[in-house]
Amino acid sequence: MSSEILPLEKIHDEIKNNLSIYVDAARERNIESMMSIFEKDSLLLTNGQKILGRENIGSTLKTLIDNINPLDFDITSVNAYQVGQDIYETGTSSIVTEVDGKRVETPGTYTAVWRKQSDDSWKIIVDLMVP
Fold first, then answer.
1. Which string of DSSP letters, residue by residue, matches 44-113?
2. pLDDT number for residue 2
3. C-alpha radius of gyration, the chain, whole number
């Protein structure tokens, strides 16, 4: 069974655009906008937790943002690979918080699996965050 070769560079640009929207929404603490890049039945794996479904992921991220009160947040998409009809994307993240009056940057990495939707948009179906 062969897979159609997708226009990877164009798709990766779309993914980067989606991530820009996500980062802006995170900085504004707009959980609803953050969740717009996740498929309804998506899966988030982070800190040993498995969170299933966009609504539950939103609740988890809201709690995380409320608890750590980030000063800044950023994501950099590094690579994208086609596997079947899905896109596996890897990147880095950075969360800046304040601890005891000092700015602390916590770097991380992630792998996300993106799937094309019926409206031709790309949404995350699996997100593995490694702080």
1. EEETTEEEESHHHHHHHHHHHHHHH--SEEEEEEEEEEEETTEEEEEEEEEEEEEETTEEEEEEEEEEEE
2. 53
3. 15
Q: Does domain 8-130 have CATH number 3.30.2350.10?
A: no
- How many Å apart are CA 98 and CA 82, to the nearest integer? 38
List, for residues 36-52, the tens digit of each pLDDT value: 999 999 999 998 999 99
Q: Is the pLDDT of residue 28 over 60?
A: yes
Count of C-beta atoms within a 10 Å radius of residue 70: 17
What residues does each domain of the chain span?
8-130
Amino acid symbol at 91: G
Residues 6+ apart with CB under 8 A from 24: 33
CA distance 68 to 116: 33
Residue 125 token pair: 């179906």
pLDDT at res. 4: 78
Q: Pick from 50, 54, 110: which is nearest to 80 by CA?
A: 110
The pLDDT value recorded for residue 3 is 66
